[in-house]
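Example 3.2
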Amino acid sequence: MPTMNLKGWMERDGVRLSPADVERMLGEGPETIARCGGEFLLEWGDCIARDIFGVMPGPVSPGTVRCSGREVARIAPNPPPCTLEEAIVTAVDLRSDEGVMAFSGGVDSGLVAGLAGLPCVTVGIEGSHDAAWAAKAARTMGLDLTIVSPTEDEVAEALARVVRVIPDPTNPVEASIAATMYFAAAWAGEQGHTRILAGQGADELFGGYARYLTSPDLAAELDRDFADLGRQGARDQAVAALHGAYLSMPYLDVRVVRAAQAIPARERVRGGVRKYPLRVVAERHIPPEIARAEKKAMQYGSGIWRIIQRLSRKNGYKKSVQGYLTEISRAEHDY
């Protein structure tokens, strides 16, 4: 058996697989891992495989098993059918043996944090919405929370590092999200953790964005946004990797995706309530005020966006954050 290298973790039908389990399966042929779930990049000999939704970064397409450059199988886990609540509980349980939780106090991260019971980290400058709300939510839930409050100089340093690695470094939204994620990943790395549980995917699966309330074709818009998660994941994982970590995403577990997408779009955004099915599940596990909470996007709620705007003005870009980011990117890429 060639030397095997597994980044991340694998499971089958809800049972975590040890490296020895995976080696035994591979001994029978690469197609034996086709039904495996998890978040993984698996390499052995001249073969490489990546999880179904491509949560773990890698050089092959999501859900692909390739040997000698040729696709030999597709990753297509098929766990037993379950309810949305069972799917989320299982997804979190599979991921919560190690790591930290990126916590904002909203329903997405709140439900995962409540189920996982892991140490939590929030990024928020002093006086920011996220810092205040996350602290209150953590007290209510009895969670162990650290609030990371970066200075202006630290945000400038973070921007200089993230523009080197994210796919669209001069896009203000992309760079500001990446800069916020940078501090959560840095804290996780300092604590010796490689896994950061996060709530990514919940908005796209359950209808979390405000624009969904007036969408002329909600089902199509949800599908388009779900398809864009790969691009977002590439950004976030590139930032986490700067600190030797990776993001783990329970809402992108195959069980959760399957259960969520079986719910009609009109039921996911219902009566003016976004993420309605998720909130129903959450109210059975966490305090109602957190299950019902509306949240700002992380770059705004954390106050990081305000610091980036201030840095832009200080560097002569009074009306163009993009101009400031372009300058940084050119300097970092030396062109």
